[in-house]
Amino acid sequence: MPENLMEKVVSLCKRRGLIFQSSDIYGGLSNTWDYGPYGIEIKNNLKRAWWKTNVYERNDIYGMDAAILMHPKVWEASGHVQNFFDLKSDCKSCKKRLKTADLKDKAKCPECGGQLTESRPFNLMFKTHQGPVEEAGSEIYMRPETAQGMFVNFINILDSRHPKLPFGLAQIGKAFRNEVTPGNFTFRTREFEQMEIEYFVKPSEADAKLEEWIEARYNWYLDFGLRKDNLRKRPHEKDELAHYAKACTDIEYNFPFGWSELEGIANRTDFDLKQHAQASGKDLQYFEDATKEKYYPYIIEPSGGVDRSVLAFLVDAYFEEMVKDDLRVVLKLHKDLAPTKVAVLPLLRNRPEIVEMAKKLAGDLKKSIITIYDDTGAIGKLYRRQDEVGTLYCITVDVQSLEDKQVTVRERDSMLQERIALDKVKDYLITKLS
Ligand code: ATP
After folding, report:
1. Are strands 286-288 and 258-267 parallel, antiparallel or unpaired?
2. Does residue 167 contact residue 201 with C-beta atoms inside 8 Å?
3. Which tens digits make up the pLDDT trace of 6-38?
4. With the C-alpha atoms ordered 84, 90, 96, 100, is the resulting torsion angle positive or negative?
C-alpha cells in the first residue's frame, strides 16, 4: 500500500475530475461530494455491473425504483422513528459534536480535553415538509435506506409478476442519514447511494440462503477486481445485531483508515412484512400453492453502498510504478469499471493529416466503445493522464500511420505496444474488452 494512500486517492480524484467537493466555490459543504466526468462513469459502471449480476443474470430477481419520499407511517412501522438513533455528546468548550460510541473517555473531549455533555439520542433521519405549509401533519422523511420501498411493494410484485418463493427485489438509489460523524472522504456521508436486494424466502430456508448470499456478494467484489487480501467477511456478534436481524455478516474492505464495512448481508426474518402488515392493515402473507400454507416469508438482505464500493475499487486500483526514472500513477481498474476504454492520441498535433486520421478513428470507435480523443499535450503527458484515470487502451497515430495505415495500441497495465491495422483496430479492441 503506498504511503498516504488515502490522500493520494483524494488528490487524484480532484486533479483528474473524478470527485469534487460539493459547492466548492462557496468553500464546500462538508462531507458532501460531487462526481465529475470520470467519477460518474466509474459509479455508473459499478451500478451496471451490480445490476447485471443480480438482475439480468438471474431469473428470480426483479428490479425496481421506489420514491425517496414515502408515507410517514412507513418509518413508524419499520422502527426508524423509535430506533434509528445515534447517541451523541457535545463538547462544552470546542462545541464539537461526537458519537458517544466512538469515545474512550465519555466525559472528556478527545479534541480539546473539554468537558462533554451527557450523551443524548439523535435521530438520523432527515425531516422535511410536503406541500406549501410547514405544519406538523406535513412532515415527511428523506428515506434513510432503500429497503422499505421494496418491502411495501411486496404485494404489488406478487400481484403483477406472480413469482414463487424464493424471489427478490433489487434497487439502487439515494439514501440520507444525518450522520453524527461523517468522514473519510466518500466513505461516510449524509447523502449516499445504496444497492440493495430484498430476497424473500421460506423461513426454513433462510439460514442456507443467507450463507449463499454472503458467498455470492463476497465473490462479486473479487470478480470485479478487489484483492483478496483486502476483503474479509465478519459475522456480527449477537449484541451488534440490529433489532430486526437474526444474523448478519459484513463484507469489509481494508481501507487505508482500517477494516470497514462495504456491505451487510442480514437475515431480517419476517420482521418487516409483519410490521407493515400490522401498520397498514393489509395481508402481506405469501400463499404457497403446493402446501396450501400461508405465511410471512423471511427476508435475506444484501445491502451495499455504491459510494463506499467506488472508494474501495479506487483505493485498490491505485498503483505507483517507476518507469525509466519517472513515477507512473495508474488506476488498474477492472475493464468493466474503467471510465474510458480507449483514448486516441495524435503523436503530432500540428500535423493536420495525423490529427484528421486520429479524429476519424476516435469518431468511428465511439459508436461502439467508450472512447475519447485528446491532443492537448505531448504524448508522454497524454499517456500519464490516461493511466491516472484507468483508460485501458491508448492508440497513437503517427507519421508512419499515414503511410502504412497502422496505429500503435498500448495496453494500460503492461504498457506493451502493438501495431494494428487501422481497419482491424475496432475488432481487436472489441475482442479484448469483451
Ligand atoms: P455503518 O455501520 O458503517 O454506519 P450501517 O451498518 O449503518 O453502516 P447499513 O444500514 O447496513 O449500514 O447500510 C447498508 C450499506 O449502506 C452499508 O454497508 C454502506 O455501504 C452504506 N452506507 C450506510 N451508511 C452510509 C453512509 N453514511 N455513507 C455512505 N454509505 C453508507
Report:
1. unpaired
2. no
3. 999 999 999 999 999 999 999 999 999 999 999
4. negative
**pTM for the full model?**
0.94
| 90 grid coordinates | 457535545
261 within ligand 1 shell (Cβ under 6 A)? yes
Please state, in angstroms and as integers, the Cα–Cα distance from residue 12 to each residue in 19, 238, 412, following that order: 9, 40, 17
CB burial of residue 212 (10 Å; 0-12, 13-18, 19+): middle
pLDDT, averaged across the chain: 95
Q: Does any ligand 1 atom lie closer than 6 A to the CB of residue 126?
A: no
Q: Is the CB of 178 under 6 A from ligand 1?
A: no
Q: How many residues are present in the chain?
A: 434
- CA 338 remoteness from chain centre: 14
What is the Å distance from ligand 1's center to 172 Cα?
A: 14
Q: Where are the alpha helices (DSSP H) in 260-412?
A: 271-280, 306-317, 352-366, 379-388, 399-404
Distance 305 CA to ligand 1 centre (A): 6
Distance CA 379, CA 143 (A): 48
Q: Which helix (H) or strand (E) holds 90?
A: strand 85-90
CA of 193 to the centre of ligand 1 (A): 9
Closest approach atom of ligand 1 to CA 242: 6
**Cβ–Cβ < 8 Å for 192, 183:** no
The model's pLDDT over 372-412, given as tens digits with 9 standing for 90+, comes to 999 999 999 999 999 999 999 999 999 999 999 999 999 99
Q: What is the DSSP string of 232-298?
A: EEEEPPGGGS-TT-SEEEEEEEEETTEEEEEEEEEE-TTHHHHHHHHHH-----EEETTTTEEEPPE
Name which of 224, 201, 203 is nearest 213 in CA terms: 201
Block residue for cell numbers 406538523: 136
The predicted-structure confidence for 281-297, as pLDDT tens digits, reads as follows 999 999 999 999 999 99
